What we know:
3 domains, alpha+beta, elongated, 5-stranded antiparallel β-sheet, ANTAR domain-containing protein, PAS_4, Arc Repressor Mutant, subunit A, WH-like_DNA-bd_sf, PAS-like_dom_sf
Amino acid sequence: MIPAVDLAAVFDAVPDACLVLDVNLVMVTANQAYLDMTGTTRAQVQGRRIPEVFPVNPEDAAAMTRLESACTRVLRTGQPHRMGVIRYDLVTDDPAVFDTRFWNVTIAPVPDADGTVTHLVHRGRNVTDVHPVLLRVLATYCRELGAADDADLAELLEVDADTAATGELVAALVAEVEQMWEAMASRATIEQAKGMLMSTLGCGPDTAFDTLRRQSQDTNVKLRTVAETLVGSNSAAPVRSAVGVGSPWRS
């Protein structure tokens, strides 16, 4: 017979910082690693919302918005969501001073017997000390070295390749860089599409962007995809032919 397992003790033994939230994003409990990393007690977190215990740094006002958005996504889809590396600073003994922190965060759903999500588990790893290596990863991308595996990246990042966290940590760091690259690529494509519309329609940059935005909203297609479609024509001719009565490109 398999002996009973003390799940509370198991939860406390998990080395990652774990926080349990209800569907209203109120903190239910946290494991010891979470309390140690944040310098709090269970009594301080239970029954309170995150910003009440961990005020948002005014220099990073969107921190809580990002977290709430991720939690809402998991509640809606019922699927775990890896946020990657995010910034959420912790206030110090001086309420006006914040300690910069970066976390590798995953939000996971806890369903009941019917499959309805009743709670969320927020799992975080404090990666503040290694966050600066993102610049080195970015340099690697720029040089197109294309490190093949975790060991190669670990060597580049000067991280111990034998540590259990290396693979996931490196993956999270690379994911953040890839997101930055995607954002830069999107911006470049949108700017190119704006230039084409400005030339074709004889309009200014604001009008060109509004034209792209309206097309995105009207067709329920991402703005970047709309811009890529336009730029992919590789010619202004298709744009001219599209600028007619009722055309989505018409300003």
